[in-house]
Amino acid sequence: MQRIRSAEQRVSRMSSSDPEYLPALLDLARALLFHFPVRAVAVALEAAALASAQKDADGYFDAMHVQASGSLALSDLDGADAAIEKAQAAALGPAQGARVLTLRATRVQRGGDLARGLALIFEAMQLWERVDAALLFRSAATHNIAGTLFAQLGDYPGAIEQFQLALDRVDHNVDDDIYGVVSNNLGRAHRELRQFERAEEVLVAALARFPDDDASLGRAIQLVNLGMVLVEAGRPAEGIRQSVLAQQLGVAGGYPRVVAAAHHTLGLAFQAEGDRAAAKVEFEAAMRIRSELGERTDLAETQICYAQLLRDLQDRAAAEALLLGLVEGAQATALVRARVDALHLLYQINRERGDLAQALDYHVAYAEQNRVLVNDAATMQYQALQARYRHEQLMREREAERARGAEFEVLAHTDPLTGIPNRRFADAHIDTALAHAVATGRSLSVCILDIDYFKRVNDLYSHEAGDSVLRAVGQLLQSQLRDGDVVARYGGEEFVVVFSGASGQQAEEATVRLLSAVRQHDWSGRHPALSVTMSAGVADISSGFDRAALLAAADTALYRAKAAGRDRVARSG
Which of 147, 401, 429, 499 has CB atoms 3.0–4.6 Å from 163's, for a disulfide? Predict the structure, then answer.
């Protein structure tokens, strides 16, 4: 909530003509989104109008993104569709394209087409691979949606993998709200696998990010889910402590979903401890809030627990009435799991009171619905595995493509005879080195070296011997250079060396050592009468601030060295 207050204060101090007003407005919209989506959408609309007037494409995209996210949070699917289309039209580059795909996946998920949602998410992930590393923290939302889709499909290991990827992204760009949501989802996935110890570790680690007096929604979410994990792990007393804290934060911060979840968890905890009266009060409070919020799935979960409690209290008539209403409502809203659980409880209640005919009817209905549920779950898990396989296969293909591209890049910049960089690489490197030297004021020198009388080597000793000499010279020069200096074969018997950070005099001294290494090398292994020397010309950045001028100066110096008798170095200027 501190982030919201700070953003509100910043906006209130500005006028709409202030150049920083639009960024401040967008920051406020993003801060409101998690807690107050209605207000977030209103602020986003104001930001969109201002961005449009200022012809600020990025600002308009961000405003539409917040509006679409807020509309989805409010289940305003028509509003979400309109905002997503506008965001799509304004999107520039892979990062914004990936964010639009994530919105579309969320929208499709709400419509129940989970397989299509996964396909969109994987498409978004492929786009994220093409963005600058500084923008990757935004991909946390994509991985989080992927995790929720896998969880809905029953693929909890796949969900855990995606939630962990999301946390890794957020961890480098701390946003407590999204961190709270993702770590909560990760903990729930471990809980579904009954990995209570791991779920507790995740939630406790997330809580450690918040100070004890923090009243944020993120901390409240961690507490309520930690309470649930502890209750399901058979530690109801500890679960009660965490749930009470969550409830207090929920009431103080105005987080009704957290308050409802805390009441539900407290109901389970008190029931586990045998305090059925207290459990009844908590379940009734949870049902009241969840009904007001319109949370059908969560409400059905609490109603099942409450009906079980009524059964334990021997109030079978009330339990049956509640369950019959739930069965009818679940059928209308396709809450298959709630319908299965309700039918099973109705079977047990009627069997206990001796109405075996009715119990048999409920058991038949339960068995049929459970078969549908199991088949649906198996189908969804199969879809999830298929989607994961296709995605992993695509990633392997892309990785192989990248590897081939990197291999081709090396080949394109490598001289095939000597194995050292070629002219293309040298030209690009000189351009980059020159730009860096100009920007930083550092020295830079270039040397052109040429093998003396190389034509004689080919004529007297064969072209094979000539190729052998070229290979040896390339390796000799490369072995004598400092880290950061680069040698390349520039063509024929000509080589270029780029001395980064070296003055003309330092480069000249280094080149003298290079010529000495070539001259003193034992060439007799190639032919007893063979000897090899080189001539060189050196120029530094004072000769010109572009590659052509620098190389021309070094080339002129090289011809002076040859004219002076070869086997020596000359410096430009």
Answer: 147
What are the helix and strand counts (H, E) for the chain?
A: 24, 5
**Nearest partner of 434 among 548, 527, 324, 339, judged by Cα:** 548
How confident is the model over 490-514, as pLDDT tens digits?
Answer: 989 999 999 988 999 999 999 999 9
Architecture of domain 95-385: Alpha Horseshoe (1.25)
Determine contact, residues 302/326, Cβ cutoff 8 Å: no
Q: Which entry of 493, 494, 508, 509 is annotated as an active-site residue? A: 493
What is the chain's percent helix, strand, coil content, to nearest 5? 75, 5, 20
- The verdict on whether 493 is a catalytic residue reads yes
Q: What are the angstrom distances between the C-alpha of 508 and each of 336, 497, 537, 572?
A: 82, 11, 8, 10
Same fold for the pair 95-385 and 423-571: no
CB proximity list for 320: less than 8 A, separation 6 or greater: 346, 349, 350
pLDDT-based confidence at 174, cuts 50/70/90?
very low
Tokens describing residue 545: 């601030």
Report the alpha-carbon angle 336-342-346, nearest 5.
Answer: 145
Residue/partner pairs of 261-264 with CB below 8 Å, 24 or more apart: 261/224, 261/225, 261/228, 261/286, 261/298, 262/224, 262/227, 263/289, 264/298, 264/301, 264/302, 264/305
Q: How many CA atoms lie within 13 A of 185 on its CB side?
A: 30
- Looking up tokens 């409070």, which residue turns up? 285
pLDDT, tens digit (0-9, with 9 covering 90-100), for 398-414: 677 767 766 676 677 88
H helix or E strand, kind and range, residue 131 = none
CA gap 389, 560 in Å, rounded: 66
Which residue in 213, 154, 160, 151 sits closest to 186, CA to CA?
Answer: 160
Report the predicted TM-score, pTM, of the whole model to 2 decimal places. Answer: 0.57
Domain 423-571 class in CATH: alpha beta
Residue-range domain boundaries for the chain: 1-90, 95-385, 423-571
Do residues 347 and 366 lie in contact, with contact meaning Cβ atoms separated by under 8 Å? Answer: yes
414 forms bridges with which residues in the sheet? 421
What topology does CATH give the domain 1-90?
A: 1.25.40
**Dist. CA 373–CA 171, nearest whole Å:** 37
Residue 105: count of CB within 10 angstroms of its CB: 26
- CB pairs under 8 A, 24+ apart, for 334-339? 335/296, 335/297, 335/300, 336/369, 336/372, 336/373, 336/376, 337/373, 338/297, 338/300, 338/301, 338/303, 338/304, 339/369
Asked whether the beta carbons of 229 and 196 are under 8 A apart, the reply is yes
